[in-house]
Design a protein that fits this description.
Radius of gyration of chain B: 23 Å
Distance between the termini of chain B: 15 Å
Helix content of chain B: 55-70%
Number of domains of chain A: 2
Number of helices of chain B: 7
CATH topology of the largest domain in chain B: Butyryl-CoA Dehydrogenase, subunit A, domain 3
Distance between the termini of chain A: 10 Å
Largest sheet of chain A: 3 strands, antiparallel
Strand order of the largest sheet of chain A: 8-7-9
Helix content of chain A: 55-70%
Strand content of chain A: 5-15%
Number of domains of chain B: 2
CATH class of the largest domain in chain B: Mainly Alpha
Number of helices of chain A: 7
Shape of chain A: elongated
Oligomer: heterodimer
CATH architecture of the largest domain in chain B: Up-down Bundle
Number of strands of chain B: 8
Order of helices and strands of chain A: EEEEEEHEEHHHHEHH
Order of helices and strands of chain B: EEEEHEEHHHHEEHH
Largest interface: A-B, 68 and 69 residues
Shape of chain B: elongated
Number of strands of chain A: 9
Largest sheet of chain B: 4 strands, antiparallel
Structural class of chain B: alpha+beta
Strand content of chain B: 5-15%
Strand order of the largest sheet of chain B: 6-5-8-7
């Protein structure tokens, strides 16, 4: 295999910073160490042992919790003897019914479709790597997951739920639904998944396979 | 210190693999390879038309920011009484109800962050267009913060969605969303896309140019 030397750097092992384009080598890191760009301090690489295995476990946990969080009401409200239940999906539904289809779509994508697809896609990619089965779909799938990462907004929904609950608690009686516990655990799981899942590890596997 | 572009290499935006766009094939002819050899995505040294696209998105967001603040975001009707609220009056009514932590949260998420984000993007765009070499590391840091924090502005939209779903008690109490919420959601989405479209590598290109002129 021919080796291209560029300014003393071998381009097969060097890395360009994605935020300032500076070519540099990433030193070999120990567990929990982080490599930052020499020039702009962008995060280039971090290392967690068993990153992919742990991520897979958290992603499967997340998927189960996602279903539980959608089954029962998150929060219920009682006024004048009438109970009103609020589920994750009812916020989407009510915006459609209120004649705001655009906001309904936004809600549907950011709180249901993107999180669900992200969990399923992550499980698919990680399982494929674990079983050493590299299909042509892994790279496009993982690319899609990375680019839609910012659009899954469940943690923002949780904060909004707290704000709404505080607004309503003076006026009416509020009851915590069963799914709220699952939802809280889901947010925790997704946060840990985000910390543990190291995209570089996935790309490293694909790189090894491509070369 | 050499950048990937100076070395004739292109770093993939997704998997950060370095690609050599010119490959000599078996016949000795060089051809252009504009797909990443690892993940297959389209590669480019800098996001194409990044600056003009970001300008367009920021200006669109700025225009929509006016109706987002003037038009009502929601109307709460309790026992037949109720007036439409816009973003600022919602914050003020929370404040007058004594819920100042909540008022502060909504004030930061719905007013401070969108304005700060629009101003930051304007500043970054202008600094890139005049080839400024002023504090590139800090400007990159500012960009990173802008990209990270923008999505939290969505909180007000979600609060409206939850209230509309929960408070449906016929004639006694209802909450209906207003057009302001739609405009505000559009502002948040447009600025999120604008921050994503802006390529921070342009900030550092001015320095590269300066050092080659010397």
């Amino acid at each position: 295999m021919m080796r291209y030397e560029t300014g003393g750097l071998d381009y097969r092992t060097a890395r360009a910073c994605h935020e300032c384009d500076l070519l540099q080598y990433i030193p070999i890191l120990k567990n929990r160490e982080v490599a930052r760009c020499q020039r702009c301090k962008a995060l280039l690489k971090r290392v967690h042992v068993l990153s992919l295995e742990r991520s897979l476990a958290f992603a499967i946990t997340g998927l189960i919790l996602f279903f539980v969080a959608n089954l029962f009401p998150l929060i219920s409200l009682k006024a004048l003897g009438v109970m009103q239940h609020g589920t994750l999906f009812s916020a989407t539904l009510s915006l459609f019914e209120a004649g705001m289809p655009f906001l309904g779509m936004l809600m549907l994508f950011t709180t249901i479709l993107f999180p669900l697809f992200s969990l399923c896609g992550t499980i698919y990619v990680l399982l494929s790597i674990r079983m050493n089965h590299y299909s042509q779909w892994i790279a496009p799938m993982f690319r899609f997951l990375r680019s839609t990462d910012a659009w899954g907004m469940l943690e923002i929904f949780l904060l909004a739920l707290i704000v709404a609950a505080v607004k309503l608690v003076d006026i009416t009686e509020l009851y915590i639904g069963v799914s709220l516990y699952a939802f809280l655990l889901l947010i925790g799981t997704l946060t840990i998944l985000n910390l543990v899942l190291n995209p570089e590890d996935v790309w490293d596997h694909l790189r090894k396979h491509a070369i | 210190m050499i950048t990937a572009r100076e070395a004739g290499l292109i770093s993939c935006d997704f998997c950060h693999s370095l690609n050599r766009p010119c490959i000599d094939d078996a016949d000795g002819q060089s051809k252009l390879q504009m797909h990443c050899h690892v993940c297959g995505s389209v590669i480019h040294s800098r996001t194409p038309n990044s600056i003009s696209k970001t300008w367009a998105l920021v200006i669109a967001a700025l225009i929509l920011y006016i109706p987002a603040n003037v038009l009502p975001i929601m109307t709460v009707v309790l026992w037949g009484n109720g007036a439409p609220d816009n973003i600022m009056s919602g914050v003020l009514s929370l404040l007058s109800a004594g819920m100042w932590p909540l008022a502060l949260l909504i004030f930061v998420a719905s007013i401070v962050i969108p304005i700060a984000k629009l101003l930051t993007l304007f500043g970054l765009l202008i600094s890139v267009q005049v080839h400024s070499t002023w504090r590139p590391a800090e400007r990159t840091q500012l960009y990173r913060l802008t990209e990270f924090i923008g999505r939290w502005s969505m909180i007000d939209i979600f609060v409206i969605g939850i209230l509309v779903a929960l408070v449906q008690f016929g004639n006694v109490a209802t909450v209906t969303p207003g057009m302001g919420a739609l405009c505000f959601a559009a502002v948040v989405i447009l600025t999120m896309i604008a921050a994503h479209t802006f390529d921070p590598r342009y900030i550092w290109d001015a320095i590269e140019k300066e050092s080659t002129h010397e």
